[in-house]
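New to this. Help decode the following:
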Amino acid sequence: MLIKTISKGKGFQGVVKRWNFRTKDKSHGCSVSYRTMGSTGQCQDPGRVMKGKKMPGRMGNKIFSIYVNFFIRKNNYFFIKKILPGKKNDFLIVNII
């Protein structure tokens, strides 16, 4: 059985939080731009940014499918294989169709 869940939205995030990029050193004149991503493409050939480049953008608020291992109908208990999205002590609403 599959359950569809939505992860918690985090808004527009930079590359350090979104893709776990390393930051630059804070010393030696790098005052403001130590959390930037650096260069994005090559030189003249191919002369563009490749598709799928990890860049800043919206993070979270995506739909995930979670597989339920087994289900006990008598007590309505679920045993779930993955970690659930959301906060601690959050409720998961399941609609069985």
Notes: The chain has one helix and five strands. The chain has a mean pLDDT of 82. The CA atoms of residues 14 and 56 lie 4 Å apart. The helical segments are 15-19.
